[in-house]
Amino acid sequence: MEYRFLGGSGLQVPVLSFGTATFGGGTDFFKKWGSTDVAEATRMVDICLEAGVNLFDTANVYSKGLSEEILGQAIKGKREKLLISTKSTFPMSPNTNDFGSSRINITKEVENSLKRLGTDYIDLYHMHGFDGNTPIEETLYTLDTLVKAGKIRYIAASNFSGWHLMKSQAISDKNGWAKYVGHQVYYSLINRELEWELMPLGLDQKVGSIIWSPLAGGKLGGKIKRNQPAPSDTRIGQGGAMGPALPEEKFYHILDELEAVANEVGKSMPQVALNWLLQRPTVSTIIIGARTEEQLRQNLESVGWNLTKEQVKRLDDASATEPIYPYWHQRGYAQLNATLKF
């Protein structure tokens, strides 16, 4: 397994990490992702560790805490062998103060996550989304206090826009507080908006990209092809996928090229889609998920080899999209914007 530093930090993470949103299936939404129980979760953790995948990603909101509880059970006796990433911000209940990035909510949710996970510390703690109601200073001071208390080792953002992240970094710099070293983001062959602003920001500020939904909720999983819709028993077939849809012909053009490259290299379509992501700037780790042991083992085969530059370019060209303003204008003057050349 290859390991990379997470942004500008000293934390090394595997290029593949394991996402546990499939653990539990405790709500109608997350049942569409999976319902992995403790026994199967323990087996998957062991398979990951054997392969060198030692970073496990969860969140308080995944099945309303059940994902964290199952992960906590699955890692018993193995805590020092692995890294845990979890998150808060989204509502855990309709109650006031049960959401957001306020001091009261972050402090409460960190304590709740520690109990569910059965650990004394969290290696990487994310703000799952940007809270526009709470002063950024309050959020970052609270996170810095938790880092100094040893309850959190590193902090990260998720689903921020460019100014959210840049303003946060500037405030941390000004006050000498812990800075976001990672940004968990949506990115794949069919959704490349990350490249417009967040990727150049990540390069400039040394913020590592942690990729969620690298197969676009199953759209790149190989079960959908031209004239072959998603099977009804898949996550996408059940309506569990997220993200905007591409025009149909553009989508199938990408799948056609992805299938052609996969046939050339003797790999599956999802393995090629994941390997393509590993060639992109700022990418520190890709979160893979799996409902079954077979899916997990297949995803693990996406590393240990590389697409050729020509194959990467073919996939780049097939999936290229015209950016919105001001990004298309900036790209017209590439000599002024070196970080846009990828």
Radius of gyration (Å):
20 Å
Q: Give the second-level CATH assignment, the architecture.
A: Alpha-Beta Barrel
Largest sheet: 8 strands, parallel, barrel
CATH class: Alpha Beta
CATH topology: TIM Barrel
Task: Report mean pLDDT, rounded to a whole number.
Answer: 93
Task: Give unreliable regions as ranges.
Answer: none
Helix content: 25-40%
Q: N-to-C SSE series? A: EEEHHEHEHEHEHEHEHHEHHH
Strand arrangement across the biggest beta sheet: 3-4-5-6-7-8-9-10
CATH level-4 homologous superfamily? NADP-dependent oxidoreductase domain
Estimated structural class: alpha/beta
Number of helices: 12
What is the CA–CA distance across the termini? 25 Å
**What is the approximate shape?**
globular
Question: How many discrete structural domains?
Answer: 1
Describe the 3D structure:
By secondary structure, the chain is α/β, with parallel strands linked by helices. It has a single domain, classed as NADP-dependent oxidoreductase domain (TIM Barrel, Alpha-Beta Barrel). The chain is built from twelve helices and ten strands. The chain has helices spanning 28-31, 38-51, 66-74, 103-117, 136-148, 162-175, 198-205, 248-265, 269-277, 293-300, 309-319, 327-331, and strands at 3-5, 12-14, 16-19, 55-57, 83-88, 122-127, 152-158, 180-186, 208-212, 283-288. It has an eight-stranded parallel barrel with strand order 3-4-5-6-7-8-9-10, surrounded by five helices. A two-stranded antiparallel ribbon has the order 1-2. Helix 2 (38-51) packs across helix 3, helix 2 (38-51) runs parallel beside helix 10 (293-300) and helix 8 runs antiparallel to helix 11.
